[in-house]
Structure of Bidirectional sugar transporter SWEET:
Amino acid sequence: MTSAETSRTIVGVIGNVISFILFLSPVPTFLKIWKAKSVQSFKPDPYVATVLNCAMWVFYGMPFVHPDSILVITINGVGLILELSYVALFFLYSDWPKRRKIIFVLLVELVFFAVIVFVTLTFLHGTKSRSMLVGIVCIVFNILMYASPLTVMKRVIKTKSVKYMPLTLSLANFANGLVWAAYALFKFDPYLLVPNGLGALSGLVQLILYVAYYRTTKWDDDGSTQSEIQLQNHNHASSNQV
């Protein structure tokens, strides 16, 4: 193994660790759900969305789509299992209308994923063309998931408060995007570089906002609902994971 390959592996392992920590960020939410035996005002949207995002990145990392991407598969495989576990727990403690919505969205995601797999393996030959299609789809999903961090940042500027933009989460997102962007540069991979480069930039802006508005934050002011915080923070955490 060359020094460049060794360095790439080390960076990828570090990326796996950081991403794993981010995937665990919803655990406190689900501990609350489990103890209350109710989903309360929490919403399943971010977890269901991240299921498809992880599944697409696992497919992207397959040797017949994009070779030498085992570390992309490992972290997103773990992420997929965790997100499905979150969805299952949410399903368990939801009423029927919410369960019906979860089933519908998961079926839509399954059909979409199956179509992408079918088109990729049937009509595209060679890893270059397959990587392009699946990679572009992954980039689009990641960019769409940046809507939540943008909403959080807009709220910070509007309220001059960083109460609902946790520093540790912003730091982790910045580090995550930076590490995976570096990983993508070792064997130039634009489909990994673009979303994670944007993720690093998003994390940097969040850190700048944190410094700028920390002093004006009223920590005892409760201006957001529980579900809003949960929804924003999970999408914030998952937006720039590979």
Q: What stands out?
A: The chain is about 75% helix and 0% strand.
